[in-house]
């Protein structure tokens, strides 16, 4: 056991250093995508609809004129940040408030804003250790779980993104730790800590409600008596936390129509075959992510194997550990996942396509695998399997660190390729129209193109004047109406450019 602990300790140091290095490596290399643009826009105190009115006027604009909406200025005080956040009630405010403070202190560059998520990701390591040790009273379980965390592709991706998910992972781990403490020790000090962290989580993500529900289900199943003191205290904490969260809850109620419109994409139908593949990839990305497309044979092979390994981990946990540990981690794995998956299966939609929404379930899977490997390490086959998984995780993380884009960049995935096409041309005008995701993608593109590139952003009512004064003209995510308006007015043809969201205008020469 001493030799095993020494090996685990050495591996922990090496992989921790590797994970810490990669989390802070090349923070400004990857595309600053649509959602990150809106993180900066909101924290700087701008409202998306107001920005649309100011920039989609048909006036010729430079990249720097668009990027001013990404920077904190004295003209936009903290009150403007809060006002902006209220227009997006689907995102509780605490992370964005922290981003605003971070920008006030350190600036508004891409690397600076993303570095806050990196800082949170570093604190995830001790938080995971605390949680694992509290549950299992085992250093080896905690160390093995941290090894898996250090080279986890999923955790690396969100450690480097200016979004709240690294912070939510941290607060969720602290929440789970405090919950386990109150269940096991039942001391008022831990109830106070648990209540405080509950409020913190509610103000971090609306999906924290799924974790709160999971904790309640676990208590009912474990205590078996609704009248138990622990369950009464749990409901008291939830009631008090709901009161503390009520100011934001009122904002949600008052802006419910905006919330519905901004989350409407979750109700758009997706093929079941696509959903099933995505669900598997959610959990495989915890350990391995080699960047293959969803239609690659990888998606049919690796995710099922990872899910089998996780299922075996839960079976092994049930056979070798206490009922309370097994039940707690199983509830944490199943309930948040099914809360997202079942509505898509029953009502249609794609609530379950976002891996980041599965963070509580991913934590349960990771801790269960940490327990499995820590208990099996005396067996040669499990030593080899752990080395293979850690090596593939290491390779995955290195590939991610070298890439401009990865799957988590979503609707801005093709922006770097579009920028390369634009930057190869001279005297460029990029035309786009308001609507859809265009505002975020246009500002994302403005980070990537040469300073001399010009933008003409229009609405349906905008006059399309003087666009042929430029040598090279591109349409970026144009609507059908915009294309028709240009073809009706100018002697041009519109040509597609393969694999990028650009169309190029070519003049039709008179015979």
TrEMBL record:
Question: Could you tell me which Pfam families the record lists for this protein?
Answer: PMT_2
Which GO biological process categories is it annotated with? lipopolysaccharide biosynthetic process
Official protein name in the record: Membrane protein
Q: Taking every annotated instance into account, which residue ranges of this chain make up the domain Glycosyltransferase RgtA/B/C/D-like?
A: 91-250
Q: Which GO terms describe its cellular component?
A: plasma membrane
Annotated source species? Dactylococcopsis salina (strain PCC 8305)
> Its topology with respect to the membrane?
Multi-pass membrane protein
Could you tell me the keywords of this UniProt record? Answer: Cell membrane, Glycosyltransferase, Membrane, Transferase, Transmembrane, Transmembrane helix
Membrane-spanning residues = 115-136, 141-159, 165-183, 190-214, 234-253, 300-317, 326-345, 357-374, 381-401
Q: Which GO terms describe its molecular function?
A: pentosyltransferase activity
Subcellular location, record wording:
Cell membrane
Give start-end ranges for the coiled-coil region(s): none
For whether the record's keyword set contains Transmembrane, the answer is yes
